[in-house]
Design brief:
The protein is built from 6 helices and no strands. The protein is mostly helical and 114 residues long. It has a domain at 13-85: lambda repressor-like DNA-binding domains (434 Repressor (Amino-terminal Domain), Orthogonal Bundle). The N and C termini lie far apart (64 Å).
């Protein structure tokens, strides 16, 4: 029996229903394409048991597998709509870069000895 992490067992009940609905939508996409669990899991490079867990909305399934499934069903763009960043935070923000690390694609002073 696999170990369950403490974070998964502490999930609020409000998170389980949306995960179950997401799994139902993924199952609907599979049914629309008339793929069996075996066919879809082969395409997703996972076991049938893992695919069933994803379709059941089990919170322990990999987010990478979810992204792969969305891509397979032609819905990967919907992932961008998940939890958009607050507009006030992203509009005027600059990313700090370490002064010790050079910017990619630039030539350092000690390399200019030609």
């Amino acid at each position: 029996m696999p170990r369950q992490s403490k974070s998964l067992s502490a999930l609020p009940s409000q998170t389980l229903a949306p995960l179950a609905r997401l799994g139902e939508r993924l199952r609907a996409h599979r049914f629309q394409r008339e793929w069996t669990v075996a066919e879809a899991s082969e395409r997703l490079l996972c076991s049938p048991t893992t695919l069933r867990a994803l379709e059941a909305g089990k919170p322990g399934t990999s987010i990478g597998l979810l992204a792969h499934a969305l891509w397979l069903f032609g819905e990967i763009d919907t992932l961008d709509a998940l939890a958009p960043a607050p507009s006030g935070l992203t509009a005027q923000r600059r990313v700090r870069r370490s002064a010790s690390r050079p910017v990619a694609g630039t030539i350092a002073e000690d390399e200019r000895d030609f």
